[in-house]
Each structure stands twice: as structure tokens, then as C-alpha cells.
Amino acid sequence: MGTIIVIVVCLAALYGVAAITVFIIQPLLMYFPNKDQVDPKDLGLENVEEVELETPDGEQLVAWYAPPSEPNAPTLLYFHGNDGNLAHRKERMHRFLRNGYGVLMPSYRGYSGSTGKPNQAWLTSDGLLAYDYLSGLGISPNQIIIYGESLGTGVATPVAVARDIAGLVLEAPFTGAVDVAEERYPYLPIRPFMHDKWETIRVINRINVPLLIIHGAKDKVIPVRHGKTLFAAASHPKDILIIEDAGHTRLFRLGAWARVKDFIDTHGKRTAPKLQTSVG
Questions:
Q1: pTM for this model (two decimals)
Q2: Maximum Cα–Cα distance for the chain, whole Å?
Q3: What CATH number is attached to the domain comprising 130?
Q4: By CB distance 3.0 to 4.6 Å, which of 21, 23, 148, 199 could disulfide with 176?
Q5: What is the pLDDT of residues 210-240, one digit of tens each?
């Protein structure tokens, strides 16, 4: 009997250590900020201005902003992934600008010169702040397309629920960061002790504007089943594009850009009927 008690106590202690470890190291496993602040003009982005957004708790967020080429052209509110900085999205910014789109690309707390430390509550609040900045510039909701990339899909979706927009694009989205973590570390007590769960699956059915999901079939970071599950749970109008040869990145280069551009042009200007559902 004494041996059994010792075993139970040891197992409980191991579980407790694992739980504490999950709680403490979670930010290190989820957020990989590059703090380098790069002037967009040094990257050939002459029409992009670096702006600062002040948060209610006194942090300063660095963002890149370029106005639309025409007053009624689409404007993207772009939320990036969990790695790198704004400079790593320079090719996308160039692509968006070549097509005449306005873009506001905020960096997260701790990234690209922004102060503070990232977590789910503050990043979501900061996403709303970024939207309100665009609104304050006179950008109409009918022009605003919210675009989320990887972790940015977790920011983009609740912002799209809370604010009026023209459409939502989710690139390599997860049903929840907690789901990805459980799949990757099945031996750890993840769910009870993970504070930034980013459970997109809980809010995706509240999106009431056109939705486009794009995902790489060979994505090993966020498996494609996450995108498919979100698509099944979402309301119409919705569309999904699976790029067979793509992993977690390079989706634009492997065929996604044409669909994304069509979505932005169609819904950012409100000129076409709702999407037809398709997979492929």
C-alpha cells in the first residue's frame, strides 16, 4: 500500500511540474518576435509610412500604413504570423501596393520596435485598435478586408466579429493554438494550463461576411485539417482553397494569390454576388 501511495505522489508531482512548465514556457513556444525596427523606405516601400499606435495601457505599437491608390479601393488590415517582423512581409506589402490596395500592417507587442509583451488578450485588443485607426482615417467598412496569417488568424477572426468589414481572409488558420499544441505535445497537460488558447473554432460561426480560407495541403506547422474544420463550421458565404504542393508558407507563389486578389477586388468594392463554395 505504501508503494502505491509513493507512486501516486510521484505521478502527481510530475504532473504538477509538467503543468507549471507548460504555463511558464508557453510564450516561448508561441511567440518568436524579431524586435528589429526597419524603415519601410529602406526596403523600397516609398509610399509606406511608419506610424505608432498607442494602446490604452500605454504601450507603443509600430505599424506600416499605405493609403489606397484610389479613394474607394480596398484596404487590408493585415495581421502577421508569430515569427519575424514587418520587414519579413515586405514582398507581400509590395504585392498589395502594386495592386493599388491600402494596407495597415501592425506589429505585435515585442515585435518590430513595438513595446510590451504579446498575449492573446492584448493582441486582440490591439487588433481592434488597429481597425479603429483605419476608421479614424475615413476608410469605409465596405473597403476593409481583414487578412490573418497563421497566428494572425487568431487575431483577425475576433476583430472581424467585433467590427464591420467587407471580408475576411485566413491563411493557414488553426482551430485553436491549444489544439496545435496538444497535437504536438500529447504527453503534456496542455489544455488546462495554456492561457493563450486562441480558439478560433469558437467564434468562426459568428463571421457574417464573405470568408476565404487558404491552406497548404503539406502544412506541418498547422495541418490542413484545421483549415477544413474551420471551413465546415463557418457560415456562408465562404470559400476555401487548398494548395496541394504548399506547406505553411509560400502559398502566394504556389497559386493562392490569384484567388486572394479576386476575393479582395470583389468584396473590397462590393461589386459581385456572394462566393460559391468550393474546395480545390
A1: 0.88
A2: 79
A3: 3.40.50.1820
A4: 199
A5: 999 999 999 999 999 999 999 999 999 999 9
